[in-house]
Amino acid sequence: MYDLIIIGMGVSGISAGIYAKRAGLKVLMIEESAPGGIINSIPKIENYPGIKEISGPDLAYNLFEQVNNLNIEYKLEKVTDVILEDIKTVKTTNDLYQSKYLLIASGRRPRLLGLENELEYLGKGISTCALCDGSLYKGKDVAVVGGGSSALTEAIYLSKIVNKVYLIHRREEFRGEDTLINEVKEISNIELVLNNEITDLIIKDNEFKGIILKDNKELIVSCLFEYIGYIPNTEFLKSTNIKLDHQYIVVNNKHLTNIKEVYASGDVTQKEIYQIVNAASEGAEAIINITK
Ligand code: NAP
């Protein structure tokens, strides 16, 4: 029986874990894949205070080291269900854990376009991680789709590795940060393809060869990198009455959900700003509120 279970070991979950351990709580963290979460796929982080520049995997490694240095207990298991009674029960693929308080910091995952054959070619010409797969396409032509800060950041990263990046966005204006938009416009091997959408994949002899656009133009590229937003990881809450909005968890300004003793923080929550720095602060704030 734990005081607190934290679901998710991304920035928000680990920040919460650090605060919980230091507050003397008996805490267990549960993570389905790699500690650090989505930052593992970010090539360069330059807006975290006190760290001038760091790669996402390096920051994730530092966070994980901090977990180990503080002897915070964790399990690398997939959460499949939670039961929210006086005692909170968290079921995983391996076991069942119980606590008085629960913090959900399960983050979100990349959204896909929903094209025919897309899932089949994920990892074989379609990617949601330029940092993981970019080096496979050294000297080749690739496409990035999306108009937010992620698509801009990754297009900049890829432009230094590949021959050419087509940056495809369905509108005239990008919605990402101005500094990134300006940087993209300065890079000679990024070609902007605006007011256009991808309608199909070109597959020949079971190999990904490129994409077809709404105007029927074909782009021959070695990889399509998709950065079109995210889907929150809340499927394991299906048997609860936690209030969701578009699958994101609704919390108040104390990070408390509509259910007593159940908190949520970071990218899995419904909010205005999704930054690493506020994911960290929300995890800490949730624990301060719990310990109060
Ligand atoms: P986002 O801001 O939600 O942008 C998603 C983009 O994908 C939008 O341009 C959207 O088009 C487009 N899109 C969505 N569905 C589409 C579809 N079916 N077909 C074609 N295009 C589609 O996502 P994000 O860029 O991943 O950013 C997520 C959050 O992380 C944001 O809050 C962002 O500020 C933050 N972030 C910050 C940094 C940084 O600080 N440097 C870096 C990365 C991310 P529309 O514009 O038409 O809706």
Secondary structure elements and pairings:
Elements: E1 2-7, H1 11-22, E2 27-31, H2 56-69, E3 73-76, E4 79-84, E5 88-92, E6 96-104, E7 108-110, E8 126-127, H3 130-133, E9 141-145, H4 149-159, E10 164-168, H5 178-186, E11 190-193, E12 198-204, E13 207-213, E14 218-220, E15 223-226, E16 230-232, E17 244-245, E18 248-249, E19 262-264, H6 276-291
Parallel strand pairs: 1-2, 1-6, 2-3, 6-19, 8-15, 9-10, 9-15, 10-11
Antiparallel strand pairs: 4-5, 5-6, 7-16, 12-13, 13-14, 17-18
Helix pairs in contact: 1-2, 1-6, 4-5
The protein binds NADP nicotinamide-adenine-dinucleotide phosphate.
NADP nicotinamide-adenine-dinucleotide phosphate binds at residues 47, 113, 145-151, 153, 170-171, 175-177, 197, 227-229, 274-275.
